[in-house]
Amino acid sequence: MTVSTDSATVGLSKAQLAHQWIRSRISDGTFSPGYRLVLGQIARELDVSAVPVREAIRLLEAEGLVTFERNIGAQVAMLDATEYVHTMQTLSLVEGYATALAAPVLNADTLERARRINAEMADCLDHFDPASFTRLNLEFHSTLFEACPNPHLLDLVHRGWSRLSALRDSIFSFVPGRAHESVAEHTALLDLIEDGGDPLQVELAARNHRLGTLDAFLARQKAPSP
Amino acid sequence: MTVSTDSATVGLSKAQLAHQWIRSRISDGTFSPGYRLVLGQIARELDVSAVPVREAIRLLEAEGLVTFERNIGAQVAMLDATEYVHTMQTLSLVEGYATALAAPVLNADTLERARRINAEMADCLDHFDPASFTRLNLEFHSTLFEACPNPHLLDLVHRGWSRLSALRDSIFSFVPGRAHESVAEHTALLDLIEDGGDPLQVELAARNHRLGTLDAFLARQKAPSP
DNA sequence: GCGACGCAGATCGTATATGATTTGATACAT
DNA sequence: ATGTATCAAATCATATACGATCTGCGTCGC
């Protein structure tokens, strides 16, 4: 979706290549939280020198995906429960607003596509396919917020999702009860947008939908499956 | 406030030094929008090699303060009216929420300090001192949002202000009428917080206060001083 | 006169080499 | 046995050198 990493790499500097490559590895779970990123090691693997790799890692640090200490090294950010809460809180905020800004410019086709994606999500619940459900969930929300006319905001939304995907194997997990609720809220949100609902109402609906997922996680933390 | 740049520079890498140095130059207006940043030139001035300077510039690019093109060079971001709108919109959002999250943990001393700062701002209006007014405005808002317990959100707020300060000489300007309104809204916001107002109410008050400044700017754009 | 070609300067991009810092292990003294 | 000093390996940090790319200008052919 965002970048195919191996297809359209023409014109990119090696530093940018390394940046995307490492980010993909973090997103797909090859480098899980806590994994140590050694400059020389990655440089050899990508067949480049250490300088561009260093630059890539510093950029990832700025994005919050890795931590870095002078003369020590870098490692994929350890995203504990607190970090998860902060990230979800921020993402709920910016995505909610982005969705509200995007709502007025969404056409019927796009909304119809969102409904189809949501229907697929419901199917995933029937067949118990959490992986597809998670993938489709991003697809659903993307369909809405990608139309946001404010590029800064959109960038923040992307970064938020990027962080979340980095920890999908460590903390985040599929909560069946919440998932059903989620699908229903998607429908409600689409209805609200289609009816040309008040922007603030759309914003809060989108925000609270995401915060609901956070709450479900927190409730699950307190009382692990008995 | 954020960094003194020349005082506590111990333990920082040269790349970090360059990063802060360039950022300060952008913030204080030495490098105004459009200014061309030449690697070798800056490297000579700071008496370091080009590599750390390059890293610093790439980080500034990621922050949105400079634009960068392969084999061409970097320049301080040209922040036109559209960019200003997007930045203000995003900042209003994140700062509003950060303020709402911070509100419950503000103590009486802090609120009292905010009131004093606001009183000083009113004085600046009487003596027509736009520069101090602008400085105090940041100080006022910092007093409130710095207590925000979500570090990601706080970082976004800082970045927003950083961007704004970068263009203070090009677009942003002091609008006397709006400034009076601003002081009044500050008081209303403090009252709301002190009364333990509903978080959403605090958020929207803080947000709309900032958006009001944006609106004043837009109105001024359409109808320049007659 | 006008457009295409090509050269020179400027600037970025990266590889290589060297220095600085940290870490961990080992040996020694108490 | 424990604590400390010392050394070697690993790793980051940066300077230097060289290569790649772009820009602007001058020249040549038409």
List strands and helices in order, with pairings.
Two copies of one chain form a homodimer.
Chain A: H1 14-27, E1 36-37, H2 39-46, H3 50-63, E2 66-69, E3 73-76, H4 81-102, H5 108-126, H6 130-145, H7 151-166, H8 176-194, H9 199-222
Antiparallel strand pairs in A: 1-3, 2-3
Chain A binds a DNA duplex (30 and 30 nucleotides) through helix 3.
3D architecture notes:
2 copies of one chain form a homodimer. Chain A is mainly alpha-helical and 226 residues long. Helices cover 67% and strands 4% of the residues of chain A. Chain A has a 3-stranded antiparallel β-sheet. In chain A, β2 and β3 form a beta hairpin. In chain A, α1 packs across α3, α2 crosses α3 and α4 packs antiparallel against α9. Chain A is globular and about 55 Å long. The N terminus of chain A is likely disordered. Chain A binds a DNA duplex (30 and 30 nucleotides) through α3.
Largest interface: A-B, 26 and 26 residues
Rg of chain A over CA atoms, rounded to whole Å, is 19 Å
Task: Return the domain count of chain A.
Answer: 2
The CATH topology of the largest domain in chain A: Four Helix Bundle (Hemerythrin (Met), subunit A)
What is the oligomer described by this structure?
homodimer
